[in-house]
Amino acid sequence: MQPYAASDNLYQRDALFLDVRRESLFLAAHHPRAVNIPLEELADRIHELPPPYETLLLFDMDPLRAEQAAAILHDRDRLVEVIAPDNVRWNDEAMVSGASTARLWRPHGLLHELIAAMQAEWGDVKGRIALDIACGAGRDAVFLAEQGLHVTAWDILPDAVTRCTDLARRTGVRLAASVRDVTIAGAIPPGAFDAVCCFNFLHRPLMPALAEAVRPGGFVCYETFVDPQRERFGKPARPERVLRPGELASFFNSWRVIVSREGLVSPRRIAASLIAQRPVT
Questions:
Q1: Domain 7-92: homologous superfamily in CATH
Q2: What is the pLDDT tens value at each position of the chain, 281 positions in all?
Q3: Alpha carbons 47 and 236: distance in angstroms, whole number
Q4: What SS3 state is found at 216?
Q5: How far is CA 113 from the centre of its chain?
Q6: Domain ranges in the chain?
Q7: 75 phi, psi to nearest 5 deg
Q8: What is the SS3 assignment for 81?
Q9: Nearest Cα to 275, choosing from 196, 208, 206?
Q10: Which residues, at least 6 apart from 191, have a Cβ–Cβ distance to it below 8 Å?
Q11: Model-level pTM?
Q12: What Cα–Cα distance (Å) separates residue 150 from each residue in 59, 76, 174, 192?
């Protein structure tokens, strides 16, 4: 039996509430900060959750459904506390109806710095064109689309593209997501984007084409694993997927560097982070 969450946890300002009831029940009444992912959809929507090291407070009026949801999350190494259906503090909250405006997932933090750099250069970024390479489940691409950018998102995995498209639909933004192998010569058109973003993917022969894809005056936003990531955490399995210290910045040494740092970005992730602007001439 999953132990119930401590009542005090419900009052934490940064508490993350996951309501796994069926959508119709959620829409009728729910906690104002809760996000609904029904139990029946949970296994397919793990990418809409926060990082694994953050605790989710999980709710369903049916204890059996709550237990099933907790088991799904535990199997994926997620931290979970179940809210008891009769929890006084939970039930004393002023419940709301309709769709939730809350969110559990979030993009890579470096993207906030990218948007700030673009705004400093251009003011309004709406209508600017961005590319997200190796987009995965689409959190970064959707975030960029929410800022008003016209976003193209590519991944080699069809399942990832499906999740990206689905997340965009649920969030209410439009983007162009498709399957593409960027390691093939000519896969990335030159000079087509105001910003090119890439996270947790490294293919060194791609770097010249990636740089050429950025229009003069545009930006690259890149973050991926750097040594000693493998030594400390054992992943990625392939050493060629990990940067050497100082290597990322060297690919863009003629650009104006806005952000360049290396270090621990989450409990088990050591990364090199870079934002750089391509010279106009």
A1: Rhodanese-like domain (3.40.250.10)
A2: 555 655 456 557 778 999 999 999 999 999 999 999 999 999 999 999 999 999 999 999 999 999 999 999 999 999 999 998 888 566 667 889 999 989 999 999 999 999 999 999 999 999 999 999 999 999 999 999 999 999 999 999 999 999 999 999 999 999 999 999 999 999 999 999 999 999 999 999 999 999 999 999 999 999 999 999 999 999 999 999 999 999 999 999 999 999 999 999 999 999 999 999 999 98
A3: 19
A4: strand
A5: 15
A6: 7-92, 110-277
A7: -65, -20
A8: strand
A9: 196
A10: 212, 213, 214, 215, 216
A11: 0.91
A12: 36, 33, 8, 12
Q: Which residues contact 142 (CB under 8 A, 6 or more apart)?
A: 107, 164, 167, 168, 171, 173, 175
**Distance in angstroms (rounded) separating the CA atoms of residues 253 and 249:** 6
Quickly list DSSP for 145-174.
HHTT-EEEEEES-HHHHHHHHHHHHHHT--
Sign of the C-alpha dihedral computed for residues 179, 183, 184 and 186 taken in this order:
positive
Tokens of 78: 């997620």
CATH of domain 110-277: 3.40.50.150
The values of phi and psi at residue 229, to 5°, are: -55, -50
Retrieve residue 227's tokens: 């040594």
Percent helix / strand / coil, the chain, rounded to 5: 35, 25, 40
What tokens does 42 get?
A: 């949970």
Q: Token pair of 273, please?
A: 């982070």
